[in-house]
Fold each of these.
Amino acid sequence: MALPLEGRTALVTGAAEGIGRACAIALAGQGASLVLVDDAPTLEGVAAEFASQSGAVRFVTADFGAPQDFPRWFQQVAAAPVGIDILVNAKSASSDGSSLLADHDDDWKRVHATNVDAPRVLMQLVGRQMVERGRGGRIVSISSSSAFRGKAVRLSYGCSKAALNALTRIAAAQLAEHDINVNAVAPGVTRSALQRKLRNEDQMLAAVSAGPLENFFHRVSQPEDVAAAVLFLCLPGSRQVTGQVIHTSAGTIV
């Protein structure tokens, strides 16, 4: 029996590690061909793992600080007749400054370039192609519970993810007539590469057990937990879901 995403191509950013890597594996497991994009030098090192699950895997090294350069490589990897059916914006940059008074312009610009500008440019590039091809599509971005909290949030990061949520809602409204679903998934504390830069294992467990990051289960999420929600939003059964932010924070945000 054919897998539900056979004949579909998914472009996944941040695919070298963490949530992006888990999303790519989940999509490949349902038959999708892959275009994997990251700035990490380890990207090609995961080729064999993906190739064993997917019919086609292509790799792109991109500078997420310069999303204005994305059209150049996009035209090469997404040219007809292949095209892109699914876009997963999983690449994220963390913030250096944690407070309004400590934040600085360079940090703000760097974080927003990766977390807002890059998804916007890719939504435009993929969206235009989806409209031209006339077969609809799915766009899913990785947000954060930080976009919904005032405490324990790094300023640039939280603001960038809130902007990504707004971008998701507006894009969903504007692309719906073309049968394109646009959603976001908002994790809480997750064992991702981004989170490990901020907390060790004991600190993660403490964070989900008490304080502003506490969740109902007192359990740290795995990248695969987030990827499962992303996969659902890319499958036929979610065709009536659009413009939504799906929380995988185990109740941190309710």
Note: The two ends are 39 Å apart (CA to CA).
Amino acid sequence: MSTPFSKIDPRAKIGNQVTIGDFCVIHANAEIGDGCVIEDHCIIGYPTPLAEDRPLRLGAGGLVRSHSVLYAGSDIGEQLRTGHHVVIREKSVVGRECQIGSYTELQGDLTFGDFSRTQSSVFIPKHSSIGKAVWLLPRVTLTNDPHPPSDPGDLGVRVEDFAVLAACSTVLPGIIIGRHALVGAGSLVTRDVPPERVVAGVPAKDRGLARDILLRDGSGKPAYPWIRHFHRGYPTDLVQAWMAGDGAGPPGADADEKE
């Protein structure tokens, strides 16, 4: 379903039960899966020669909120959720059930893993690699150019599965943030962060094991790995796998530790 106020190229491939709002532009190279909702003032399949004639593929069940732009050449999994004014540029590979917060930009030529989430105003540059079930909180900035401006500026950041980058943290080019690691709010990360470690400060320094941080609810339970206690919005089968120990515990943890 679309409105007369939108411009939809007849060559676009649009699935069943797709809703398109007012003043949208759907380009010829767009492939929109079944059940997607495209809100007002969106551009889908924005053309660019950098896409190398690849289409924009948006998986089934996506929700693209108003004023967002999805470029040609990207492949986006099912059940995407965006905020408002999101930009996903060419040759981004975005996994299933991802959430991209308002005013976030994915600059293209990058990967963004299944179930990963950003909150608002996050910047992810080209050649970045975001793992599965990663959290990037408000105003996180990843960088890829050690001597700006330079060409090609391709030292992207790698963030591994389950890592959390807290608000306003900045990561310098080529850095690796390890699995289950935590970057404190406002940090400037200049060195690789090993798995399961906490870093914080300017420049960020190692502050110990993430699993030593306790929840502030009086329970005395560890706050990390976060997948042991925070499950809102994640599929039941995925949560069951987490609680069974698939990815939840530190290397070498026994069954009692994983509960």
Note: The first helix runs from residue 236 to 243.
Amino acid sequence: MKKILFFLTVWFLSVTPLFTEGRKEAAEYEVLRERMVRTQIMARNITDPGVLQAMKTIPRHLFMPEGVRHLAYGDHPVGIGEGQTISQPYVVALMTESLGLEGDERVLEIGTGSGYQASILAFIVEEVYSIEIKETLYKKSTETIGAVGITNVRTMFADGYFGWKEHAPYDAIMITAAVNHIPAPLLDQLKDGGKMILPLGNPYSFQTLVLVTKDGEDYSIEEICGVAFVPMTGKAIE
């Protein structure tokens, strides 16, 4: 029932005036969103029903500055200010599907950015906790997440390197900025058997998207594909 109500809330908001958007414009974006899922995501073998429905439902363009909303459903990342980007739709879907979410998880996201990835996660799972180190983005993303009717995301303005210990342990953790090592505090806050996905490698060049699975005091790493994310700031680069 919760997911049905969530879907109806987001659908209603996506077809009624929101910010400066009217019905006709919202309908046009809905067509673009359907096409994005079909040609960029399903065509690249993303099959998880929850991920596909989330990508079809969440109005990606509303998480972007008005001046670049026309780029929202293109097959590429888009700048959102503060030197940050909203990730390519396929990468959002890939990272989300890789966590193997079933719906009852508590997930920690490091790097709220626009708030879009947190919202995709929130469509699928019970609780999302998201940390943003840039205050301007923290305020804007928190406002946007609330404005589109999402109620199961909590945000915090802080350095995500240290996680959010108060709500640990987490079933899954997603880092949406590049790091050259796995932050120890985040591993500590991951539940035994939990998964963490992150871009690991040179923060100023290219990285490998990896899936970390915790096994007691140890962990395993599965390499997924090459990526290029903006660097994680704060303690991660000291």
Note: Confidence is low (pLDDT under 50) at residues 10-18.
Amino acid sequence: MLYALEPIAFVHSPFREKFATPRQPGLTPSIKATVAILPEFSSPEAVKGLEGFSHIWLLFIFHHNWGRGWKASVRPPRLGGNQHVGVYASRSPFRPNLLGLSAVKLLSVAVDNTGICLEVEGADLIDDTPVVDIKPYIPYGDSIPSATGGFAPDAPEHRLDIAYSPKARQQLEALKFEYPELEQNLSECLRLDPRPAYRRDKPDKQLYGVAFGPFNIRWQVNDDGVYVLDIESKR
């Protein structure tokens, strides 16, 4: 038997690609995203009472993995990318049904004649991620104090310090009125060290680039941490 799913909403976030998108929710709390509910699901009655919850669950589709199949065994970055676990023991996007689950902080629920839009914080979702359901986070049922985390018992450390080149610092200064949280956003993302696991803790002269919102960010890793070289506007 086949069961059809269709998106009820789409996420709009500054993450334009998988690279540098947080691997779990809540790791970049300064970064905000919106969940735009599609017109056919935008009845105000559908979100009545939602504003009373501090957090929500977003059930979504790993759309960047569409058509790439699934893997029974995966190598989680938390294990250095060189140890295998079963896909059901991981949060890997290479899943049979490409479904993900993310708990995010709900900042606001906007209902007007253009539709319904939720503003959220701490999302680990790439821009244009399709959302198939929204549920309230229920603390007494969803939080389990005695739970254990297997090979990921604790939140990842902020591994790297951040420094900016004179050029990047000048660019941040020019952008601070239009994008006042840009420096904090970038620092939260890059301190988590988004490089492939096999490159960590090794000499690395690679020049990296990442699309973040309307910017291309170029950076390197040296002995002192991340060094942001350039913040180029794509507009």
Note: The mean pLDDT is 92.
